[in-house]
Amino acid sequence: MASRGSRSEKVKRIFQQFDGNHDGGLNREEMAALVVSVNPRVKFSDEQINAILDEVFRTYSEFIDGEKGLTYEGLLRTYDDGAGDVDRDFDALGLELNLDETKGISEASSSSIADERGLGLGLESHKKQRTAAWAISPNHGIVFDDTWKMVDDLDLVLKRLKAKQAKEGKLRNDNLDAYSDAGWSRELGPSTEISDKRVFWEESGNDYALFVKELGVLRSRADGARSREEAFDGHMAIGRVLYEHQLFKEALVSFKRACELQPVDVRPHFRAGNCHYVLGKHKEAKEEFLLALEAAESGGNQWGYLLPQIYVNLGIALEGEGMVLSACEYYREAAILCPTHFRALKLLGSALFGVGEYRAAVKALEEAIFIKPDYADAHCDLASALHGMGEDERAIEVFQKAIDLKPGHVDALYNLGGLYMDLGRFQRASEMYTRVLAVWPNHWRAQLNKAVSLLGAGETEDAKKALKEALKMTNRVELHDAISHLKQLQKKKGRCDLELLKKEMIEGDVPVSYSGSGIPEKSIRKPTLEEILRRLLNVLKPETFQGAVKAINERILSVLDEAGSGRVDLGMFFAVLAPICSGPPEKRKRVAFDALLWRPVNEGISQIKKVDAVRYIKLLRAIYVPSQGVSEMLEVHGEMDASLMSYSEFLVMFDDPDWGFGIMSTLLKLETGDRNRHGHHVCSVCRYPIIGSRFKEMKSHFSLCNQCYSEGKVPSTYKLEEYRFKEYGNEAEANER
């Protein structure tokens, strides 16, 4: 949790360590020594050092004192902006704080709050002994004396709760150090971050009920303060203490009360957003971060330095909703405002990778690593992006670098195992999955992949053992939850509906813009298009929607935005999407025609230009039949033809087996026939209608779809030592046997 001593005091000690001439500034030579010293495992070239120093001195020019260099306040600001990790650097340098300023408050044996606080210490002494650095921060700390007393009382209430729950074995800790860091800014200024160990409090029972009652008394004291400002100070402090003890629900109550008291203050909205995010409420987190952003932007210079952190957290909340393209925009804003914000660059790279923009992802991740060479998570995602680009050997090297930096990095080990599987290096893949299981013994996907890799390596007996272990693991509670989600999802449609598409055209307010050639069009940026897609695919869960956006970005937007401008002709996009929406085929064609008609170039008429129709058909072929269509895009026949085309003429062109969208009939067969291949059979695990092969268990007579069979899933009601399956391509084949 919070390390003892003031964060600003740590920065001061680092500053003093490298201010060799004691002139109150760090010149380029002294800054270079600092950068090298806090990264002992990294060998910087002169070019890298100079680039880092140029960036720091340019970004923080207001804190440069002539020839003296960067002031203490400037160094503190670099850490506040996320350009470095104070605790990591302080430890790397082997520095120590003054013990008089960092010793904790001694504990008394009395259970009375008043008695426990009566240690004979003056208020100033209490302040010096605060374990959390935020409390004495000039911008984010405690302002009123009575607030200090409330914080002391709350600390003692929490100590009693922790002692009782620990004694009864109710308090649980989960080590999160093995996973990739989310990278989000938890604080708005000097403060320590949440511990790598997540604490889970037991909220049932008398001890927790008593804690809530005592907390209510403290909140009433805050509400009864002499002024609105003091009440705000009290609720913010209570929320901060609760947050640091990972009592997020209770902390949220305090921050929301602080929002009511001072609605235009950035801090309570930001912290309420953090609480919502930790609690898995991404939509609510996004709304609070937007309020914090609005307050910061309207507050002038007072909160300007906090914008990068707000942008980062807003982006992460959007990712939680599946809105990755939108998240990219905020990560970019954070990186522009603070070029040394390595977390913003890492998150930008990871998000770009998530939507299939591998080259841009590699660039952002390499920049993050340039600033922070020991950033294991950035190395891991860079390797994944390189794999996406087909640079597999380099990807292996970068994955290995991530593992060298953090030997128990589950994501890097698991993904490297997958890469080895793709390359047919099954023995190496098996080794990676074994290392994953050493860190995370219940990682059933790693266990299953280990079985597959052992099978590929020819170690059949070991593969069988691994597979049995994987099957045992799939009975875990979280997988039952996932299956329940799939059952619910099955009740809904999972495809874009034509009526929703038409509604977007009718109700959508898209301004007309002009391309370089002066042609009017309704073009929008990709993040805005993502918002429209979210409405069109509203039944999809965030992770499923993110996958859909990636596919659309890779297959459709990359063709529509060939120039890489980041903008898309919305009418053409709707027309391209219409053929694969749900609905009768003739209606799909009509909506496609209407989408072309909706474009400004055809406004006010009932016909479309032939040149647009020709381009549309060629775009369809380039997107859905890329083996034929890409070359056709280079030779657009009839491009200078300015004549108009009616709907009936458009249908003739669309249905032309040679030059039209000839795969439409095949598409319809796939949509209808394939679903009926196995009659009314549904998978006994996910409850989806079985498409493709059906796997029937011959003893218990349940059936599995391709996906569940390949993942080794079985219904929880059937527990057998061994399962025997037969594969049926269709029901006629099943009846023959």
Automatic annotation (TrEMBL):
- What organism is the protein native to? Fagus sylvatica (Beechnut)
| UniProt KW keywords | Repeat, TPR repeat
Gene Ontology CC annotations of this record:
plasma membrane
Q: Return the protein name.
A: EF-hand domain-containing protein
In this chain the EF-hand domain maps to 6-41
* TPR repeat boundaries on the chain: 232-265, 342-375, 376-409, 410-443
Q: Which residues form the signal peptide?
A: none
Q: What is the lineage of its organism?
A: Eukaryota, Viridiplantae, Streptophyta, Embryophyta, Tracheophyta
Superkingdom as given in the UniProt entry: Eukaryota
Classification via InterPro entries: EF-hand-dom_pair, EF_hand_dom, TPR-like_helical_dom_sf, TPR_rpt
Which Pfam families does the protein's record reference?
Answer: TPR_16 (PF13432)
